[in-house]
Design goal:
The chain has about 180 residues and is an alpha/beta fold. It has a single domain, classed as Lumazine/riboflavin synthase (Rossmann fold, 3-Layer(aba) Sandwich). It has helices at about 45-60, 80-90, 110-125, 140-150, 155-175, and strands spanning about 35-40, 70-75, 95-100, 130-140. A four-stranded parallel beta sheet has the order 2-1-3-4, sandwiched between helices. The relative contact order is 0.19. Mean pLDDT is about 90; it is low at about 1-20.
Length: about 180
């Protein structure tokens, strides 16, 4: 059996289709979607690769350049307030936060990574706009590079695909209301 975090695993809240279930749509599409990306400038080579992965996924799924907004911020700590401004703007169906926090010898990692995650979650709950956590929280630079590798398991591309899936789901939920 595949582990729970695998794309092949049927878990992650997928309900067995029933009379009221909303199964995941067949394919992801960025056509007609409006998505915003807030990306940290800290750890520029790693975050740059995450952005590349997100842009590649956007194009792969048929997104138009004018429908994707990219905003840069100093670091991961500034991502929640930026995501909040983007979510409250009303133009975006989803917001993606991209960044990288690498554990060091001080408790800085715990404060920045924890507050970033908490803040992004609060924004999603407060605004009702899906906010995707694409912030790498790793122990080493090597782990970050592995997760940001373009053509590999790029977490920026995965975050973009999550945003598309959530935008599609929320659109279907609104139609049912």
């Amino acid at each position: 059996m595949a582990p729970p975090h695998s794309k092949d695993h049927p878990g992650h809240g997928d309900a067995q289709p029933g009379p009221h279930a909303l199964p995941r749509a067949g394919g992801l599409s960025a056509r007609g979607r409006r998505v915003a990306i807030a990306a940290a400038r800290f750890n520029p080579s790693i975050v740059g690769a995450l952005i590349e992965g997100a842009l590649a996924a956007w194009r792969t799924h048929g997104g138009q350049e004018q429908d994707l907004t990219l905003v840069r911020v100093p670091g991961a700590f500034e991502l929640p307030v930026t995501a909040q401004a983007l979510a409250k703007d009303g133009r975006y169906e989803a917001v993606i936060a991209l960044g990288c926090v690498i554990r060091g010898d001080t408790p800085h990692f715990d404060f920045v990574a924890g507050e970033c995650a908490r803040g992004l979650s609060a924004v999603a709950l407060e605004t009702g706009v899906p906010v995707v956590f694409g912030v790498l929280t790793v122990n080493t630079s090597e782990q970050a590079l592995e997760r940001a590798a373009v053509g590999g398991m790029n977490k920026g591309g995965e975050a973009l695909e999550t945003a598309l899936e959530m935008a599609e789901l929320f659109g279907r939920l609104r139609q049912r209301a």
